[in-house]
Write a structure and sequence with these properties.
With 556 residues, the protein is of the alpha+beta class. Helices cover 28% and strands 24% of the residues.
Length: 556
């Protein structure tokens, strides 16, 4: 068996190295292979070396409201901010990609890669007093697979888990359908973290409003569209190597304020009504860098960038030339520069820089070319009329562009710019902004273009969006309805390939095919940004750029 054992001396060394990485001394992350999980403090505070202070309440403004705080049922990144304060995972992934113990003390992997045997910590309890043990782990992973749970992203993350065996009270064996290079890393993610079996059975569908985990903070309350409050777990002593404080948090409470309006959220930070706020708009980033009362943190996320998916189940976008026309007519550089003022990096691939397997050779490959776009539509028989719009067989060439509300990260503005850009080649774009994205997009697939992104640590994330096995009538996640047997094979091989260089080549093939076949239009890499008072110290980030509050304190 292949054994994985990590001594505490090794963990301490790794933690020290990580602390240097996260200290904020480095410059802003760029898309040049820099570890995207590392945070850069764009304008560091003056008290970074101050001794931690116990007590106090951190108010933290969120850009949107979570859908649920049940990790297994959530589909929103914003929910992870709260989920991670309440719940822990079996293992932790460091920014360099290595996997380290957390709730699991050690593990062994079978020679065929299809089973993992975990030895669990024996000193952990859930907030409701339920013991953390092998039975709890089995319950959680089986719960994700149970159709009654209506699992969201967690179901994809736990794949190819199929069953588990309880060896003894603190030893569990997880069995997989196939070997998976992504499995351990995925177990580190918040959306497959461990919930209390007692609470899950007690609250059922309402667990998301009554979450119970083993994390550094306990859930207190959730006022819809207002705030979520968590308080210190005084018994906590099993923090991951991502943070320095292994004991209970310094803060008494974290109060997540729901503040969708950008002006309100940023104004609250500037006025001191809240001590920190997330998702800072580009125009405010430039101003806040000069504000002597505040500090700004920025970290590019990993996984899939914000991407426009072209629905191939809708004519004429099932035609390669029609999609290539869109690819040539949409000026992504102009969009990113206009809306994000140099604070967001342009995306070139189905993956973000910093994600394993990213193909840097795609950068600079797609350039706007109006003449090419017009020629392609001419070849398809679409003729421009006196109004400048194209028709074929008496039918106008229209594109149904669906986006969600509110205007997250200026995505509605992207739609408006593309509407004008495509008008130049005779395509009429009908933009529909809806609050019911689940029905419009994921259930009814009622769109020609829809944009989405996903934070993830491994290129296996491509499966849900580009593997033909992910195309379905209901609950569709392969948003382009893309079916390519060769791409399917590369993705399947990438999951089990042990040779790192060969695995990287497989994912490079996938990325090239997707761009060459104009399946998508990659737009931007999202930088997670926080503006905070200089009194706020010790916020750390995990490898996916989610904030951790174990080390956070309020400097008096």
């Amino acid at each position: 068996m292949v054994k994985k054992r990590t001594g505490w001396k090794t963990i301490i060394a790794l933690t020290a190295a990580l602390a240097l990485l996260l200290s904020g001394c480095a410059g802003t992350n760029k898309s040049n292979g820099t570890s995207e999980g590392a945070v850069s403090n764009v304008k560091a505070g003056t008290n970074e070396a101050a001794a931690p202070v116990k007590g106090g309440e951190l108010s933290y403004a969120l850009a949107t409201s979570p859908d649920t705080i049940d990790p297994h049922r959530s589909g929103l990144a914003v929910a992870v901010r709260a989920i991670r304060t309440i719940h822990d995972s079996l293992v932790a992934q460091l920014p360099d990609g290595t996997i380290q113990p957390w709730l699991a003390a050690e593990w062994e992997v079978s020679e065929d890669g299809k089973s993992y045997t975990f030895k669990l910590r024996q000193d952990v309890k859930f907030h409701d007093g339920t013991p953390f043990n092998a039975e709890a782990v089995k319950y959680n992973y089986d719960r994700i697979l149970n159709p009654e749970t209506k699992a969201a992203n967690s179901a994809a993350l736990i794949r190819p888990y199929k069953s588990s065996e309880i060896i003894d009270e603190y030893t569990i064996k997880l069995n997989l359908e196939t070997p998976s290079n992504a499995f351990l890393g995925n177990l580190s993610q918040a959306l497959v973290s461990i919930v209390s079996p007692t609470a899950a059975q007690k609250y059922g569908d309402q667990l998301g409003k009554n979450p119970v985990g083993t994390g550094p903070f306990k859930f207190v309350s959730w006022e819809e569209n207002s705030q979520i409050i968590v308080e210190r777990n005084p018994d906590y002593k099993w923090a991951p190597p991502l943070v320095e404080n292994k004991e209970a948090p310094y803060l008494d409470k974290v109060v997540f304020k729901i503040a969708p309006e950008e002006a309100t959220r940023i104004g609250s930070v500037q006025s001191g009504q809240v001590l920190a706020g997330e998702t800072i708009p580009p125009q405010n980033i430039l101003a806040l860098e000069k504000d002597e009362k505040l500090q700004l943190f920025k970290s590019n996320t990993q996984g899939l960038p914000y991407t426009l998916f072209i629905n191939q189940n809708k004519a004429p976008w099932n035609e390669l030339k029609a999609r290539q026309a869109l690819q040539a007519a949409i000026d992504v550089d102009a969009i990113v520069k206009t809306l994000y003022l140099g604070t967001y990096d342009r995306a070139w691939s189905p993956l973000t820089p910093g994600t394993f397997g990213y193909d840097k050779s795609l950068e600079g490959g797609v350039k706007p070319d109006i003449n090419k776009a017009n020629a392609l539509l001419d070849e398809l028989g679409y003729v421009k009329g006196a109004d400048g719009l194209r028709t074929k067989d008496g039918k106008k060439l229209t594109l149904h562009y669906v986006d969600g509300s509110p205007n997250r990260e200026k995505r509605n503005d992207i739609a408006a710019i593309i509407q004008q850009q495509l008008k130049q080649i005779g395509v009429e774009v009908e933009v529909e902004i809806t609050k019911d994205v689940r029905t419009f997009v994921f259930e009814n697939a009622n769109y020609d273009i829809y944009g989405n992104s996903q934070v993830n640590s491994d290129p296996e994330a491509l499966r849900s969006f580009y593997h033909s096995g992910a195309v379905s009538v209901g609950g569709n996640q392969n948003l382009a309805a893309y079916k390519n047997a060769e791409v399917d094979t590369w993705i399947d091989q990438g999951l089990i390939e042990k040779d790192t260089a060969k695995r990287q080549e497989l994912y490079a093939n996938v990325q090239k095919a997707i761009i060459e076949q104009a399946v998508i239009i990659p737009i931007y890499v999202f930088p997670y940004t926080i503006a905070a008072s200089k009194s706020v110290q010790g916020i750390k980030f995990d490898s996916l750029a989610y904030p951790l509050f174990n080390d956070a304190f309020i400097q008096k």
